[in-house]
Design a protein that fits this description.
This protein is an alpha/beta fold and 289 residues long. The protein has one domain: Spore Coat Polysaccharide Biosynthesis Protein SpsA, Chain A (Alpha-Beta Complex). The protein is built from ten helices and 13 strands. It starts with 5 loop residues before the first strand and ends with a helix. Uridine 5'-triphosphate binds next to α5.
Length: 289
């Protein structure tokens, strides 16, 4: 079975839930402590064995392209001042992987964004949505790739969510295959709790067969006039195996203001020095009341 080497990062969305900051700054560049959110996704792809990273970008995403490029002046500056640690840190970002960029001319949805990479994906490929940073001992994408190596087909990440929250996610209708692996029959976008076929939500990690492109081309525009990846996956699941893996890891939702803020606090509490700062602020505030 061919190895999966390419990972797509669709980053051409407008990030409206974070306005006004995303008017000029890509949402993927918002920091989670000292690294932009997208840096965590790229590290996950690389740790899973993907060396070719393709960003599907759009207007206003230059900061992201520059971030993964060499920064000659900064490197020189740090070198001249003997700041070796920072010099190595900066250099390591551009050498993480091979980076390429494809433009999505209009933000017509996640399905459409993925279709823009078709000319570069003749083999199975991975997709990471950067909104979800997942901290795990084995990278989540690697957990999916392991299942693909055993069972073939396409594979997506799943998470059990509370019944009241099904309407925030794509939910699958699936049959347990083994341990944490499910065979997916159907997918429903954001069902209310009484219409949800299960409590298994689709989380932004995918290993897709290139046949997905034909399915994307065949779907109609869905919710919000966008080409939805979920609709293309429904169509794919009718013709070939689509597996779901309930991954092992801790997800930090960085796609909404509240989720992002909570993620920063959570990450802070995991660092002994920053934990003290969080606790100090809480103590000070308590004292004021
Ligand atoms: P989201 O809907 O979560 O991101 O899309 P968004 O549109 O940027 O944010 P909001 O909802 O307006 O706040 C999921 C992923 O798909 C990408 C986004 O960049 C995000 O990573 N996407 C979405 C595209 O690349 N192109 C699109 O047309 C839509």
């Amino acid at each position: 079975m061919s190895e999966v080497r390419k990972c797509l990062f669709p980053v051409a969305g407008l990030g409206t839930r974070f306005l006004p900051v995303t008017k000029e700054i890509p949402k993927e560049m918002l920091p989670l402590i000292d690294k932009p959110v997208i840096h965590y996704g790229v590290e996950e792809a690389v740790a899973s064995g993907c060396r070719q990273i393709i960003f599907i970008t759009g207007r206003g995403k230059r900061a992201l392209e520059d971030y993964f490029d060499r920064s000659y002046e900064l490197e020189q500056f740090l070198k001249e001042r003997n700041k070796e640690d920072l010099y190595n840190l900066i250099l390591s970002i551009s050498s993480l992987a091979d980076f390429a960029y494809v433009r999505q001319p209009e933000p017509l949805g996640l399905g459409h964004a993925i279709l823009c990479a078709e000319p570069f994906c003749s083999e199975p490929f991975a997709v990471i949505l950067t909104d979800d940073v997942i901290i795990s001992s084995k990278p989540v994408l690697r957990q999916l790739l392991d299942v693909r190596e055993k069972l073939g087909g396409s594979v997506i990440a799943l998470e059990r969510v509370p019944h009241e929250e099904t309407e925030r996610y794509g939910i699958v209708d699936a049959r347990l295959y083994s341990d944490n692996v499910y065979q997916i029959n159907d997918l429903v976008e954001k069902p209310s709790k009484d219409k949800a076929p299960s409590d298994l939500a689709i989380i932004g990690r995918y290993i897709l067969s290139p046949t997905i492109f034909a399915h994307i081309r065949n779907i109609d525009r869905g919710e919000g006039g966008e080409y939805q990846l979920t609709d293309a996956l429904r169509s794919l699941a009718r013709e070939e195996p689509l597996w779901g893996v309930v991954y092992d890891g801790d997800r930090l939702d960085c796609g909404t203001k509240m989720g992002w803020f909570k993620s920063i606090i959570k990450r802070g509490l995991q660092d002994p020095e920053l934990k003290e700062v969080v606790l100090e602020v809480l103590r000070e505030e308590e004292y004021k009341e």
